[in-house]
Amino acid sequence: MRRLILPMPGNEALAAALARACDGETGRVETRRFPDGESYVRLHGDPAGRPVDLVCTLARPDPGFLALVFAADAARELGAREVTLVAPYLAYMRQDIRFLPGECVSSRSFARLLSASVDRLVTVDPHLHRHPALSAIYSIPTATLQAAPLLADWIAAHVDAPLVVGPDEESGQWAGAIAARIGAPHVVLRKTRLGDREVRIDLPDLSRWRDRTPVLVDDIASSGRTLAEAARGLEAQGLPRAECVVVHALLADGAFEELAPRFARITSTDSVPHPSNRIALAPLLADALRRDLRD
Length: 295
Ligand SMILES: O=P(O)(O)OC[C@H]1O[C@H](OP(=O)(O)OP(=O)(O)O)[C@H](O)[C@@H]1O
Prior knowledge:
This protein has 295 residues and is of the alpha/beta class. It contains eight helices and 16 strands. Helix 1 (12-22) crosses helix 8 (282-294) and helix 4 crosses helix 5 (172-182). 1-O-pyrophosphono-5-O-phosphono-alpha-D-ribofuranose binds at residues 94, 127, 129, 167-168, 170, 193, 199, 218-226. One of its GO terms (molecular function) is kinase activity. It comes from Luteimonas wenzhouensis.
């Protein structure tokens, strides 16, 4: 039976692209608030006997999370064969340890809640900071997809003579993979996180790369401080204005407007709907869903 692809509100474009790519049928999730502020959810489309894909970016997840859980519950109760959450951006991966006594380790709590609500999870480049894999915290089958090849292909097609730059050690893995795929050099900077919105970035001497266009690559742009500090360092060494390519453009509270003048362009995948989206994830996600279909 054809998959039923249900976008949570705001995720319609990605759901439509997925439906085209996997010959699925899109339905609709109607949500509204009751007068007392509680969430109302109604599914339009019949889940009975079919695989159901709930499509929902989890950027800023708190206001819509209950509605997502209710939609998954409704799909199960109405006979869905299996409910897969397609969440190209997976939230709550950054508080992965108890930094201070009494703190909630929200990556584990969120994983427990989602694992109880859906049967499978498909996501892209989750921020696996200290967790070795999603299976360390999620008890359901997960597909962890990598956007690096898509980022690499976009850079190869749009930037002349790139120098791939990872702003911190963790981004070294993407910077290396992207650079190798397009045959470009890469460098990795050193970051010290001083607070939620404060980082320090130390750069090696990059003067030999002044004839190259630096391309900062990272998994997440949130406050934008990491990218801003890295761009400042590159400017200070006289490199050309940088490009920036990220997987997940969270870019909260005016961060995009603040960052934009520092870069030739800011480019992101469409894991989080944002004006910087230029790299479509639907083919990658559809591939994973098709693989599931063959299982
Ligand atoms: O736009 P920003 O607000 O700078 O946040 C984005 C940066 O934070 C994350 O790394 P990091 O290891 O610093 O974050 P974490 O320790 O919070 O996981 C991520 O990989 C980005 O480099």
